[in-house]
Write a structure and sequence with these properties.
Layout (H helix, E strand, L loop, with lengths): L1 E5 L10 E6 L8 H16 L4 E6 L9 H8 L7 H6 L1 H11 L3 E7 L7 H10 L6 E4 L2 E4 L5 E7 L11 H12 L4 E7 L2 H4 L1 H26 L1
Bound molecules: flavin mononucleotide.
Length: 221
């Protein structure tokens, strides 16, 4: 599992914090990674002191299993040392979400859904008491206030279509955690649409990053 954080040395106003999640099994020719590079690269140009955390879930994350589930449902003060260790990866992933302003997720469509590695990440960050909680009115997400960008690529599935389970699922589950401000940039239909699909998605990615940079400047002013 790769995670790298480039902390800012800047000690003025709090710097923009970006969490980048990559999920493509491809490293060299990945479209979602290319869009991620463009998006985050643009923001880093505008904000050289931005704090960027990269979480490459394609390097592998544990799946939840019986012991993990038991540890998760044991109250924090009752957990033994082994249970605390079992939850460490999940705890770090949750912290990464709690300590960011922007979440950028590369979403390759695999078999009409999200890659298993990205689903493993979702299973590890959906934690009752940490990222959502149950109330008398039903579950409430706890990650409000962060903006999410989904950089999606598909060979044929059009975003927003009946068979777009990937973005619909992510919108729902991230919304469940309180992440309701979601923008989707799609290079959808790469296999049929040719290079213009990628060109258009790259232009949209840069335009979104520029808009975010301007919003952030406005907020920081
Ligand atoms: C294992 C696998 C499954 C895929 N399944 C689908 C699919 O169900 N529908 C689709 O439109 N494209 C599918 N594709 C195509 C990918 O979505 C497309 O190649 C996309 O660019 C992958 O993202 P990446 O370039 O970041 O790796 C699949 C690709 C792979 C490798």
């Amino acid at each position: 599992m790769t995670t790298s954080t480039h902390e800012s040395q800047h000690d003025g106003d709090r710097d923009l914090r970006i969490l980048r999640i990559d999920a493509s099994g491809r490293r060299r020719e990945s479209v979602t990674r290319q869009l991620g590079d463009a998006f985050v690269g643009h923001l880093q140009q505008r904000y050289p002191h931005a704090q960027v955390t990269v979480r490459d879930v394609a390097d592998g994350l544990p799946f939840v299993d019986e012991a993990w589930i038991k540890a998760n449902f044991t109250s924090e003060d009752q957990r033994d040392a082994r249970q605390r260790t079992l939850l460490e990866v999940s705890d770090s992933l949750v912290r990464e979400l709690q300590q960011t302003d922007i979440v950028v997720i590369g979403v390759p469509v695999y078999n009409f859904g999200v890659p298993a590695a990205l689903k493993a990440w979702i299973d590890l960050v959906a934690r009752a008491g940490l990222t959502f909680r149950y109330t008398e009115q039903g579950p409430v997400g706890l990650l409000n206030g962060r903006k999410v960008y989904l950089l999606l690529a598909s060979g044929g599935v059009p975003v927003g279509s009946e068979i777009d389970f990937a973005s619909r699922y992510l919108r729902h589950v991230l919304g469940f955690l309180g992440l309701r401000e979601i923008e989707i940039i799609a290079a959808d239909g790469l296999a049929t649409g040719g290079p213009t699909v990628l060109d258009r998605a790259l232009r949209e990615t840069l335009a979104s990053a520029a808009q975010l940079a301007a919003e952030y400047q406005h907020r920081a002013a």
